[in-house]
Amino acid sequence: MKKLIFLIIIILSALGFQLSAVIQAAELKPVKPGQLAPLFMLRDFEGSYVSLKNFCDVDDTKTPPALKKQRAVVILNFFSTICFPCMEEMPALQRIYEKYKDKGLKMFLISIDGKPEEVLPQFIKDYGVEVPILLDMYQKTLQKYGFESVPHTILIDKNRKILSVSKEDKEIDKKLDEKLSQLLK
Asked: Thioredoxin domain spans which residues (predicted)?
């Protein structure tokens, strides 16, 4: 009898979890161009914390000029090491990073892998990734941006305004290059 009750509890828990995931997914509203990018703080692969606010934010006229941080255009790319379209985009994103990293661009790859320490070292090696990687193991930031799948690439201006959102784009480098060449003259 105890085994049956335990089994019922496990099944109900599983169903409840699935139901809450479906309800949560239905409530997701993907970010769109023109909106402010949601703020986040994520750990990078080396263990340091990175906040979007450190690179771009709404222009605050109350902050004295000496205390204002150097702002940058930011690209975020949500990915997973088991996502084939993510792997296809990686070389293009790497090219964009190399071309604009010294011209005012900050780029971050945001891994949604559950066990990044197990999968990222080989992925970094296989794809020659030099772009900083942030960890979103519980996919809270992915959900905050309103996404339920990867890849998604977001271009954000210095004032934290979203300029473009791309999903599985085979020409991502051409589109980003066109926009960045105008933004980072």
From this structure: 31-185
Do strands 73-79 and 162-167 pair parallel, antiparallel, or not at all (unpaired)?
Answer: unpaired
> How many other β-carbons are positioned within 10 Å of the β-carbon of residue 152?
23
Helices (H), the chain: 2-27, 84-100, 116-127, 140-144, 172-183
- pTM value is 0.82
Domain boundaries, the chain: 1-30, 31-183
Quick: pLDDT tens for 36-83: 999 999 999 889 999 999 998 877 666 666 556 778 999 999 999 999
The residue among 117, 109, 106, 110 whose CA lies nearest residue 140 is 110
Q: Any idea of the CA torsion for 85, 135, 33, 75, to the nearest 10 degrees?
A: -80
Query: Could you give the CA distance from residue 86 to residue 84 in angstroms, rounded to a whole number?
Result: 5
